[in-house]
Every structure is written in C-alpha cells, then in structure tokens.
Amino acid sequence: MKLGGIEAGGTKMVCAIGDEQGKIFDRAVFPTETPESTVPKMIAYFQDKGIEALGIGCFGPVDLNKKSATYGYITSTPKLAWRFYDFAGAFREALKVPVGFDTDVNGAVLGEVRFGAAKGCENALYITIGTGVGVGAYINGRLLHGLMHPEGGHIFLRKHPEDTYEGCCPYHGACLEGLASGPAIQGRYGRKGAELAGREDVWELESYYIGQAVADYMLTYSPEKIILWGGVMHQEKVFDMVRQNAVEFLNGYLPETSLPKDMSQYVVAPALGENPGIIGAMCLGMDAYLMECGKNL
Ligand code: ADP
Ligand code: ZN
Asked: Rg (Cα) of the chain, in Å, rounded?
C-alpha cells in the first residue's frame, strides 16, 4: 500500500512516499515559507504518486480535537503566516485521500513504537531537544491528546544553583525549553552547542536539566521507553549523563522492581535514525486510512 507522509517543521517540510511496513521509497524537501508558496509545491509532489492515505506530523501548536471547527489547523504559532491555517484540510481537499494529523513528536513516537526503539511498548515518550523542546507521548497503546496535546517542553524545573541564565522561553523564561534548548545554550554561552563540544560544564548543566525532565516524565507518564533526540542530543556523551542525573533526581523513590534494570536500554536514541518523524507520519496516514476505509477491507 502506498502512503504519503509529511514531517512539517518550522524550517523545512519533508515529504515522502512509503508503505505500511515503514519503508521509504522517495522523498522531497521544501523550505517552510508561507502556505501560499509552500503547500502547492507539496501537493504537486504527492498528486501523481497514487497514495491511498497521507499522514502529517506537524509543528505546533495544532488543533487535534476532532470535534473542533479548527481540527487539523496549526493554531497560535509564532510563525505568523501559518497561524490558524487549515493544514490537514488543504491536503484532504486536494488529494481526496484520508489524512492523519498529529504533532511532529507524536508522529515520531508512533514511528518508533511501530518500527523502532519502542517496538512493542504500550507506553513510550519521544523527546526532542532542538530549537524547541517537544514531547510526544504514546500511552496505553494510543497517542496522547487530551485537553490539547502534551507540551512537555514547557515544564518547570529546579534551577541549578550556579546557573545565572534567566532562560529564553518567551512565555516562561526558565522552563525546560528556556533552559536546555539549542537557543538556550547559545543564549547562556554566546556560542552554538556544536562549537562547545569540548566544554564539559556545558553538557553537565544540560544533562542536569534534561535528566531532571526525564525523572519528571518517569514519575508522571510511567513510560516503558524514553527516546531522546534533536540537534542537541547529537552530543552523544549527554545520553549517559542524562541517565545518571535522572536516577539521582529520583533518589531511590521508585521501587527496584519498577526501575529499568539497564538505563542504557531505557533512555535511548531513535532506532530509525533521522526518520522517526517521517515514518511516523506515514503511520498516521495508515491509521487514518483504517479509520475511514477499514470497514471496507
Ligand atoms: P529543529 O529543532 O529546528 O527541528 P534540530 O533538532 O536540528 O532542529 O535542532 C537545532 C538546534 O540544535 C540548534 O539550536 C542547534 O544549535 C542545536 N544543535 C545542532 N547540532 C548540534 C550539535 N552537534 N551539538 C549541540 N547542539 C546542536
Ligand atoms: Zn516555556
């Protein structure tokens, strides 16, 4: 079965054709400009490919409430051209196929649950630490939506006593995103994370915040697997430091029987490399197809 997927990001739109086994046959990338200039190019890419469904993992915030008049819209994004844009609707109308729609990180966690590091899990999280911080949650065998969708990047953390940086989140200052995103590193040290690879203090502080967040998520979501990715996590040494910090923050609270035996198998990088988002988008398309056409199979 031929599926289309879109990983819709603030800087680029990754479009791909693949199948329900998680295979990717073809892909194209378009810069994220405005809906008027970018969406017609994406529609043209899919139009002659014979896809039976399309899935979209989208930067947010987005409206995921199927009863809402603005379901499938990008909502209050700071990217003004995309504000309250009917993203899913534009593709549904043009391509006339079922369209699945969710957050980029919910797409990514779904990809990893079906085909990657969280295969077989009923509960898993996908956390990206990049320009922003996002958390996708797959809970009790379903993507978590709820009141809107999880916004785990904006949780509030205990500040490191020696950290004087006020944080860069325009809403909260020193939330997780404000303290640990790529722009937070740049704001605190005046240089990009990639240029600070040798500075141990940078990564210790980074791990202090990400480890604290991981402990918070363990306590609240009770995940069986935590997948960490995003530009900042390209500093591979951070993984082990995050695992250690998470255990230290938990401070023996979780009973041994429920603590993961091996933290190196618990907090992990994606198994799908750079592709969890786009493969997850195709999974969203597959699920939309089953929902709309499944009764006819
Ligand atoms: P986005 O979040 O925009 O989709 P990324 O996940 O690639 O994109 O994150 C980009 C952020 O990650 C930037 O702030 C960048 O400085 C930071 N970053 C990229 N590569 C590295 C690296 N090797 N080490 C540390 N930080 C990095
Ligand atoms: Zn915030």
From this structure: 19
Distance 275 CA to ligand 1 centre (A): 16
Residues that place a CB less than 5 A from ion ligand 2: 154, 169, 171-172, 175, 177
CATH number of 117-268: 3.30.420.40
Interval 187-236: pLDDT, tens: 999 999 999 999 999 999 999 999 999 999 999 999 999 999 999 999 99
Name residue, tokens 């992990």: 268
Q: Give the model confidence (pLDDT) of 93-110 as tens digits.
A: 999 999 999 999 999 999
Q: Where are the alpha helices (DSSP H) in 58-135?
A: 87-95, 104-115
With a 6 Å cutoff on the Cβ, whether 32 touches ligand 1 is: no
CATH superfamily of 3-104: ATPase, nucleotide binding domain (3.30.420.40)
**Rounded distance between C-alpha atoms, residue 194 and residue 182, angstroms:** 9
Query: Does ligand 1 lie within 6 Å of residue 12's CB atom?
Result: no
In angstroms, the first-to-last Cα distance of the chain is 13
Question: Which mutation among 234, 238, 239, 241 tests ligand 1's pocket best, with the greatest number of atoms within 8 A of CB?
Answer: 234
